[in-house]
Amino acid sequence: xxxxxxxxxxxxxxxxxxxxxxxxxxxxxxxxxxxxxxxxxxxxxxxxxxxxxxxxxxxxxxxxxxxxxxxxxxxxxxxxxxxxxxxxxxxxxxxxxxxxxxxxxxxxxxxxxxxxxxxxxxxxxxxxxxxxxxxxxxxxxxxxxxxxxxxxxxxxxxxxxxxxxxxxxxxxxxxxxxxxxxxxxxxxxxxxxxxxxxxxxxxxxxxxxxxxxxxxxxxxxxxxxxxxxxxxxxxxxxxxxxxxxxxxxxxxxxxxxxxxxxxxxxxxxxxxxxxxxxxxxxxxxxxxxxxxxxxxxxxxxxxxxxxxxxxxxxxxxxx
Length: 319
Fold this sequence. Notes:
2 helices, globular, mainly beta, 3-stranded antiparallel sheet, about 325 residues, about 5% helix, 14-stranded antiparallel barrel
């Protein structure tokens, strides 16, 4: 038995086994949004933490803040020019635990507050507050060792409205699927391949948006982009194309330096025959066992796309 900082190594007749003890982690995140618009106060800030609680699993929490920038209402004969800021805050608590040696389940409860405009003379405040639940499932060693599959159903919650309750809409429920595989894992070298898919599931029935528990399945068999009378296979194909597909690879050297490359594809849609295609490049530096720095940049492959040059910076602290 050999103890280390975060686990125990056991030499047995069947080989070497490692029992890993998870550390507490706190992460900070920043990204500028839509840099082609040159709006300095359009950005996204985030903070999150995870705290293992022994055999009970792991609890976590997060808060996201988005600034949509300052807007101006021009003056008219009766009211002077007015400026206002639009912001959004989402905060949540999460819990995850193992179901079996290979399967885990997680649940997140999140609260949101969105302020499109408030405090404007002569106008109602355009604000809303609501809540939602996200459920996720993880399967380890799916078909091969070190191959993991994850599925999440995000943003299950009630309808929201800003000014007029009769114009309320559901929070877009989102399906997310992800798979990763580590084909190479040596002492100083590790390669990870990953792919993910996400799709917002919105369905309009009888001229009104369907609740999330209906849209979760009905948007797949009756997607908005499918023509009336299409067969089930065509509808499912159209439904799939309403989502985002991503691919990524990470090379990690000596658990110190990580090089990352990714590709995102958004299928063509109305008004955009090319869809959206972007390359993501990133680097991670594990400065010590306690501190990790990650930087990433988006490069759009289509001309004049708004996310070209978008930067993301995050730090993880372990203790």
